[in-house]
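As the next step, I selected for study one protein, both as residues and as discrete backbone shape codes, as given directly below:
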Amino acid sequence: MSFRILGAALAVILGLVACSDESPPAAFSDIHFANGPKIRLDVAAVDIVSEFSPTFQAPQVEQNFPIPPQRAIENWVHDRLQANNPGSPYRVRVTIIDASARELEGGGRYTARASVKVDVVDAHGFAVRTAHAEAVRSVTVDPDASPDDRDYAWYGMTRDLIGSLAGELDHQIRSTFYPYVQ
């Protein structure tokens, strides 16, 4: 009797394995920026505001990325910008203006854009210091590429896009936000 149960269980398992001809989707680690020094700011808080809203309609594809550009931008803010003075009347406002990716006509070619503005604002919400950066990256993926290969291309494009944006914002903040950078 136990051989019949074991045989039936083995048949079910082998049947399930045979039906699964797809490999599991690739797992991607989140894109973070903790490897560089924090930018310590003499402000009470760091706020993120997004003016960008994904449309979830073609030709927009950022919602399909393993790590969408908007999330990578938010990670940069959390990883790099640090408010160091809870009693300050000043705040930092990070505005995500664009974090889009689109498939260009003809398919297989993708362009991603990121645009971010960082302001030190006073108690009335007026900007006293501003930094702004934009970045654009493109990638071509073979139309016959697997979904995993396309995701790897999108992941690399996002990493490069936000890395470039972050480098420019780091430079601008450190050079123009005096006396708010500690």
